[in-house]
Amino acid sequence: MKMAVDQLVLTPRDIDLARSPLAGQFDAETYVLGAFNPGMTRLANGNLLLMVRVAEALRRPILDGKVHAIRLEEPGRFVLDGWPLELADTADPRKFLLHGGGWKVMALTSLSWLLPVEVTPDGLQIVAIHYDKALAPEGSWQCYGLEDARISRVEGGYLMTTCSVSPERHSTTLYSSENALDWTFEGIVLDHQNKDMLIFEGLVGGQYWAQTRPLGDLYFAYPPGSEWRAGPSINLATSPDGRHWKPCLAPGIRPHAGTAATARMGGGTPPVLTEIAGQRGWLTLWHGVEPKEIVGIYRTYWSLLDPDDPSRVLATNREPLLEPAPALTAPLEDLMYLRDVVFTTGIADAGDHFVVASGEADLACRITHVPKASFKPG
């Protein structure tokens, strides 16, 4: 679907690594592998705030017969670890797999930190890059990075979920703020390999609600002829305070057996209460992944959830709302390392349209103006 406004607003070339939390930490050159997957919210001054994931990578990860990763050793100190090449599979540019453990073990070729970027109310021009407000890993639970922020405005404040990566666990961590610029760490709220946690922008029945997406290596089959496909899906959880979460018994959004385009799925934008095609409910944008080569094809879809029971889908469309846009990244061809990915992470109401923020090709931040009339069930 072609949108009237659809452009990149931030790319790796806009990032000053001299102001990175990693600057001067070790004797190796780094570069910005990607500045992407921005959480987004509206600031009190009307501007939009993008919380951008900056993946800072080693220019030469393979050196002296070893492949290296960046790791937080202790608060404020980062180091390099090296593994013998014969133990590693380096086919994916974003990570490498380590052999011999009896199960999948990997490390990353980059370490991610979060950079607040203030943009104009329409999302299209940079106002300020707040390097002094950047969030970097601060403990062993996120020693390999802090990724993919999602920001929700709820009950007069801001809650931000992030994915924290470490050998201890692959967890969801929570931050809170009164202004979306100064953040307080609230701890781990979901444990091992639960990604894409999206807190609803409003209470339901007096409780906080969230979408979650637990991962695993094993999924049980639906019965023959079921309309659902086994695999990663979007679940739901509730909380009395936004800090302590309990999974819901009812499932959320599941992959449909009739298409491979959403064989794998996960949450995109925090659900917002709005009206779509004459029905009021929680609008959620989510990603579906079609299997292809190593990474797959990522597209953005939408669903409208019941305002009182978000486990009920009121309306959706199997056609994608957003698809990868190679024309947008053509000027960055020399920086490309991945294709076929749009990963939507933020939404803001702008009257007759939504401002939608996405990561494009795990490389840059994409802003799309999506008319509300575009949301047609089908």
Keywords summarizing the entry:
four-stranded antiparallel sheet, 27 strands, five-stranded antiparallel sheet, globular, glycosidase, Tachylectin-2, Chain A, Mannoside_phosphorylase, 378 residues, Glycosidase, single chain, mainly beta, hydrolase activity, acting on glycosyl bonds
Shape designation: globular
The tally of beta strands, per DSSP, is 27
Poorly predicted runs of 5 or more residues:
none
Structural class: mainly beta
The helicity comes to under 10%
Strand content: over 45%
Order of helices and strands: EEEEEEEEEEEEEEEEEEEEEEEEHEEE
The CATH homologous superfamily is termed Glycosyl hydrolase domain, family 43
The number of helical runs is 1
CATH architectural arrangement: 5 Propeller
Instruction: Predict the CATH topology.
Output: Tachylectin-2, Chain A
Gyration radius from CA atoms, angstroms: 20 Å
Taking the alpha carbons of the first and last residues, their distance comes to: 14 Å
**Tally of discrete structural domains:** 1
Q: In CATH, what is the class?
A: Mainly Beta
Mean pLDDT, as a whole number? 96
Give the biggest beta sheet: 5 strands, antiparallel
